[in-house]
């Protein structure tokens, strides 16, 4: 159809004639114009030719097009031809091909590929409509009716790809394929696919096929299915979770982790699953993740398990029997993590909760870290601080739990005493823990003064308050205490936490309020090279219980009376420290070594604290300790708080730090670098002039260095300067014997770690974070292959630790623990990776937890083999599964462990 206005027709013809004879890429915007509009002339800078149109018409928006070779327009038939790397943009639609034909009369776009000299198809048509993408040999599309036919095409639907000989697209966007393939492999010839006679694709919703069968490596499976349903939503979708089938030694066959996934919204999801066992027992699990952009994110899980009872006793000898405690009739586990996003001046709520029944993880968890650990802790807190105010506060609730053994005696069959070790769960709570603080400020600021850097401005005063209530189900009954250690001879009972015992547990709790006033007096320079720092400290604690001791005449029994109320305990001290830096340097004229510098930092301080054990303070009570009339000093307050020690302290503390560096030449001319020979070598101690004996404290020695600039070494030792008569310490210095004996080693710790990799790892936000994925965290089960970096050829890390302490009976250093751990990875090829971790206990001559894992990248699939060869966590697992979350249930799994065999 030719426009009625001849001037408009002539202008359009001139535009396309100019484009046809252009030797470079042509760009234009074309829309059908009304008779009242005027076509602007082409600008000199070869800008796009543009025609403005009325808002109504067959063409709904601007069509942008270009071609590398040429553009030809048939004005009589209103057909445009684009040759060579042709491209069209029309709203959300884009089309790339070797050749494109546009018929303005019919509204049909036709795109085809080209052939190279070898007859291969190149520049295949690629059609994009929003998130959809089609790659084919030929495309015919009507932009008016929004229908099209595609030949030999590949279209992307979410994480999947649809291959079909012929594809039709209706006006609603639905796609119909004949002799189609559906796969998540992105290769032109996929490794596996679902082959169907007919297939319907509803974009961003689902793929329906049937009848179909699976094909692996071009080998079809003999069994097919009448129809298939494959969801491909753009957003997360709810659906059924297929359980895992397997077998355990104690619970028989099972179905685990089967249930329902609920995509509640874009910011929250929930996973509800259950477990069932053929020999009795079942489990229920609820997991959820949530997030709010720029505010917080978190996760929550609640797990319940009803386990059948295990055997109760296991004999190891005739005289000793160890209790193998089976799980309770029911076990529960709660986990909650809430992480806020830092916002200056705003309050922050955070939570990290991990609580469970005593044996939940030992009988239900497959995570070695949880199974081997018997201690967990939780914290929930809310706090606020401001950059414009010195005030801050925080209130928190804390919890800790662990397993302790109770030793019981009973008569065995032979009538001899035997021991039974019964594990019990001990839980402690801090409900609540409140803190309030005022940042240190100069008194000059209190009166509106201006700080100008004077030394007097170094005097600063702050304030900190903390109040807490500590409760535990491990109750210590204080009453009749025996000698010779009455403060330790108390009877402990572990109560079960239920409604009947809560009142007793809270009545035995400790409530303490601590006040601390930090005072700094600034730093004064003396004689230009010395720095003097005086200090004053004051703090006090308020207790709700106070003990009074009284002896029973004619017996070795001490009775304790408890007085409730608010009891104040305070203490104060003064101090002053003096320090300086000394430098020594030796210059060389060698080819590599330029100089060696030694930095010496001596420090000397004095502190004084009065005797808070005196009767005038009332913090301690002197009581009779035996029938001979000897006495002991006992604290009148429960543990915790800032209870000062008894006795006058007038101590001089001393120390010296050393650092040795070497300046060496590099390969570059005139460029030097520093190499640390000794990172730190320090000796510290103190001398209490007010003590009546043993005035000199033990000396601590710390050495840290790095051999060959890659092998760190840490050595810590405690030296005792006094003599011993057998196991009894004598108030006489060891050096008084003569010779070179100045002190003896009481404790010695040595550790080193070697880490090496030919390619340094990039820093990560979280060392345990899985690879990035757009799949919901609860919707996809990660395997070992997800955490393997195939780009690193190999890594190696080996650590060695050894601890020694002196045995007072033999007066010899005895090895307490010596172990070595090794872990690393080896990437055999760009597809195969091998990781390992193990440790060896030299003292017990046994291997600790050992794990070997092999991962194979199969392009669209992945394989992982995990093996723990021995120990309580002995297991193996073999997993082969599709990477895509859409086909995550398409897998092969074999495993056997302490918790069961899975298929």
Automatic annotation (TrEMBL):
Leader peptide range in chain numbering: 1-28
Domain LPS-assembly protein LptD central: 207-722
Stored InterPro entries: LptD, LptD_2
Pfam families cross-referenced by the UniProt entry: LptD_2 (PF19838)
Keywords: Signal
PANTHER family: LPS-ASSEMBLY PROTEIN, LPS-ASSEMBLY PROTEIN LPTD
Designated name of the protein: LPS assembly protein LptD
Biological source species: Rufibacter roseus
Taxonomic lineage: Bacteria, Pseudomonadati, Bacteroidota, Cytophagia, Cytophagales
